[in-house]
Amino acid sequence: MRYKIILSLLAFLNVQVCFSQNLHKEKLDSYFNSLAANNKFMGNILVYQRGKQLYSFSPGYSNIEKKIKSNKNTSYRIGSISKTFTATLVLKAVEEGKITLNQSIQTFFPSIENADKITIGQLLNHHSGIRNFTGNADFMKWHTQPKNEKEMTAIIAAGKSSFEPGTKAQYSNSNYVLLSYLLSHIYQKPYAAILDEKIVKPLGLKHTQFGDKKDNEETVNSYTYESSWNKTEETHLSIPMGAGGITLTIKDLNEFVNKLFSGKIISKKMLTEMKTQTDNYGMGLFEMHFDKKTAYSHDGKIDGYNSIFYYFPAEELTYVLLSNAENYNLNDISTTVLSSVFRLPFEIPIFNNDKLMPSDLLPHVGLYASTDSPLIITISQKDNVLQAQPKGQQLFVMDAISNDKFKHYKSGVTLEFTPLTSQMMMKQGNKSLIFTKQ
Description:
The chain is of the alpha+beta class. Helices cover 30% and strands 26% of the residues. The chain folds into two domains: 76-303, 3-Layer(aba) Sandwich (Beta-lactamase), CATH 3.40.710.10; 353-437, Lipocalin (Beta Barrel), CATH 2.40.128.50. The chain is built from twelve helices and 22 strands. Helix 3 crosses helix 7 (173-187) and helix 6 (149-158) runs antiparallel to helix 7 (173-187). It is globular. Mean pLDDT is 93; it is low at 1-18.
């Protein structure tokens, strides 16, 4: 028995060393430098295991206008990862005996349809049936304007319900906005003060808060890409509240995630409640799998900001991504980093736009149609860059792999031209279509 334990310990130590030694740091650095140079990604990446930083990189700028480069102290809006914080606060309130998961929300929000049937637990795991207010047709008309609890509750109540509580799951930001207000009611404090008291101060998080950064902090902008980076309008954070209103640094998010999963914020019992998946939804957590390994995760998107974290319990490994500008498939970025961590092969994408002349693109320009699809695609060029625009859709800026092959990395669409036959093959995933130039 003692011999087996020693062998297990040696295997454990060997795995820990291997993750660090085989991370391919230089190759990952080249990957992120390539993404930044080709206007694909700006932000922060961190990989952390058992108290040790395995990898960190900060490509691009936090503020393009002021030429401020991204760094480990850059504070980002994290969007829906805020829900993991809010779920943690709610479960702390359960531990303190202030509420129960089976308690209805009738007392707090009587104007909400089915309030007498909806439980706090159903808000947490998206089984409430309450419609998602960010799906409202007019949302983008008022998302930059401040809103108070009365206004937001009225908006959510007006949206009614999509289904009977508990019958199925559907992601809804409305659930976590209501949970933010519920916390304020039971503690008689603003959400920001509760977050500060229950999580920020106990963990010593120096750059985590509800709402935007303080005046003396570095100004971070978010961007979207349309032939160049354009600063985005920013949602007023009184709207998403604890569904998407927290800002922090990558170090603080890593610290929070590690403390959460080590039982330093809520009890193991409450953590089990968080992790339990019902119809693929936990309470502020999703169960994910990579290379047959299990992780708990959440991601977030607000304006031009994106965020992701994965925590692998068996490996005690955390992967965190924070971004203020992306023109690339973030799932591909995560897959690349995790492939490096777990010693799987990965490739650096090819960007050859600077090697093409405008004349190289001329044979491809035109209108393309397919006998197998009603889709009509216009292929155009801007200088040495190929552009594709399906009828009625946005313009897609393509990246050159070769003279006749182009890819839109964010959507995963590849276009391959055969000028001699005036044909174009469009591939996405396992599907392909042949188009002919008209």
